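Our consortium's second objective concerns turning raw sequence data into structural hypotheses that experimental partners can test. To show how far this objective has progressed, the report includes one record in full. It was chosen at random from the queue rather than selected for favorable results. The single chain below, 324 residues long, was entered without modification.
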Amino acid sequence: MERPIDFSRDRYMLCGGCGLRFLVDLDWIDRWEQGQEKCPGCRMTCEHEDAPRVTVDPADLALDDSVTRLFWYHTSTQPDWPTKDFDPAAGLTAETRRLMGGDRRVAAWAESQRAKALHVGTYEAAIHNMLRRIDDQADRGSQFYLYRVHLEPTTAVRDGWIVDPSDFAGDVMLHDVCPPGINAARYLNYHEDPGGITLALGRDAIASVQRVAVPAPDACDIGWVHAAGIALCDATEEVPPPADSFSRLRRFQPSPQALVGGKLAEDLAARLPINLQRQFTSATGFGDGADPAQWARRTSGLIAAIENPMHMLALLDGQECRQL
């Protein structure tokens, strides 16, 4: 069962000071994070420990018994996520195993990796996660895949919801959030699709997945791609070799193409909700030596995944389910 997709939807806030729950838009949250707004109930600002934070929408379908019938989403650079017979130690070299302390410690480490929960969330959270990874985790040149996740109907889901239990690396140990006999837990996502429900779950909770590449090959705006390619090619200039200390400093300045690419990305990002603009601009930055046409197609395809999610869903509809 699909849910409405709306990157710009209003969010609920809950004040830890006065207990007021109130609805705001994303621009209000942006101003709030800069100390420009106050709780309408107690006038508390964002600096306080009990200041309002985004909270769940009480009407979210993921909060009721339909949770296992909903479609869930995940983005990954792995073409076979979630990997069958996952072995985190498979790619370790003999030297790495030695540095880790030998086979026993490697086996213990691998077991701890397998004990981590998988994460699936809303379509919005999956796309937001992809942008964050491109921006923060050096995945700029990686191929991403969008997965639609179908849960096992018999999945035992923990009652209610909890606040985001992730550690600094975004990891959650499944046994920390799922008591015995439970293999999925709902949590409030603060960082990606803030206010949305994400699931931490075990591999056995997933029945099947469908997969498409992101960006989709046919999703770009041909007119924009053509115009962007021309602008980038026109920005090319011959840079003379450095002759003195001042000239050598120029090597560390953005190239004309990088400046034009940055402006093109900023103009696209301005069409997005404010909480996606910075990461989109950073994730689509034009690197020196990049192919202008390829960069333009990829950048246009990435924004299409946000502005035209129905196209991505239609592509997923045409994919076979891979049973796990």
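The partners drew two points from this record. The chain has eleven helices and eleven strands. The first helix runs from residue 26 to 33. Both points have been shared with the crystallography group to help prioritize constructs.
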